[in-house]
Structures are given as structure tokens and as C-alpha cells.
Amino acid sequence: xxxxxxxxxxxxxxxxxxxxxxxxxxxxxxxxxxxxxxxxxxxxxxxxxxxxxxxxxxxxxxxxxxxxxxxxxxxxxxxxxxxxxxxxxxxxxxxxxxxxxxxxxxxxxxxxxxxxxxxxxxxxxxxxxxxxxxxxxxxxxxxxxxxxxxxxxxxxxxxxxxxxxxxxxxxxxxxxxxxxxxxxxxxxxxx
Length: 191
Ligand code: SF4
Fold this sequence. Notes:
Structural class: mainly alpha
CATH class of the largest domain: Mainly Alpha
CATH architecture of the largest domain: Orthogonal Bundle
Number of strands: 5
Strand content: 5-15%
Helix content: 40-55%
CATH topology of the largest domain: Arc Repressor Mutant, subunit A
Number of helices: 8
Largest sheet: 3 strands, antiparallel
CATH superfamily of the largest domain: Winged helix-like DNA-binding domain superfamily/Winged helix DNA-binding domain
Order of helices and strands: HHHHEEHHHEEEH
Bound molecules: iron/sulfur cluster
Shape: globular
């Protein structure tokens, strides 16, 4: 398969995801971008659940993202939580209502239906392959990787405890599975 065909295939899949997000979002009074921001906030760690983090992830200005987040907050899907150490920093936490809303949309119903006869091993392989494409594409565009601790060059394990070498903080296992705006693959060199 040529790269041209791969591009077309990815584009068509992305279109289907957008259509589904639009339909479900409309049912919940939300735009696809608002669902996308909510999904990101559910998946990201405590270094990334800020207006800046959402802005970098979505590739939108902080002003645009603030409008998106205002809607989510007004609808009771996210709530603001001041940082316990730095009161100037505000975290955005997904509420129980926000999680319920996402559970109806992610994963997309058409994906569940399309892959219902596919083995877990094959889905895992497909996911790994696509992650590889994503990583290479992010590298080519100079985009942030937004990966999890397991593949991060700052990840440290000391006496069985996880530690972020960048912040110097200990991480609970659940935190290490979340995506992070500070994530860097080991082969990324500071310029
Ligand atoms: S180890 Fe990397 S991914 Fe994990 S919290 Fe630190 S910077 Fe983020």
C-alpha cells in the first residue's frame, strides 16, 4: 500500500470519527471539539490538565480553548481545582457527569461494531502500528508527543516506586498510565 493510500485511509477513518462525534455531541449539546477537550482531560496527568495543556493538545489558542472549557464547566462536565502548591495554577478535572458523557462516545460505536470479531491480539498490534505512525508523524512535524511515562526519557523507577525525573516527584502507578505534555521519547535530544 502506498503512502497516498495510507493517507486516504486515515482521512476516511478520521472523517467517520468526526461524524460520530458530531452526532453524539449534538445529542448532548456539545461540539466535537468540546468532546475532544473533555476526552483529553480524562486521559491526561496532573502536569497537563490546564488551559495550556488543552491548547497544546488541540493546537488551538488559549483564548479559543478558554471558550471551549467555559462551556464544559457550565455544563458541569469539568470543574476547576487550584493547585495545592501553586495557587496561580488551576487544574481542570472531569466530573462524574463528564465521565458518563464520555463513556457513551469513546470508543466510537462504529469501531466497536467493526472490530467485534477481531482478536484482542490483533487490535493490540494494530494499535501499536498506528502509535508508531503517530510517533513518526509527530517527530516529522516537531509536535509534542503527549505520551505516557512508560515511554518517557524522564521516567525513573527507584526501589519499585515511579518517579518523574523532570519534576522530581513520585508518581502513583495510575498516574504513569496517563498522557503528559512534558513527555519526551528517549531519542529526543534537547537543542
Ligand atoms: S516521566 Fe515523563 S511522562 Fe511521566 S510525568 Fe514525567 S515528564 Fe511526564
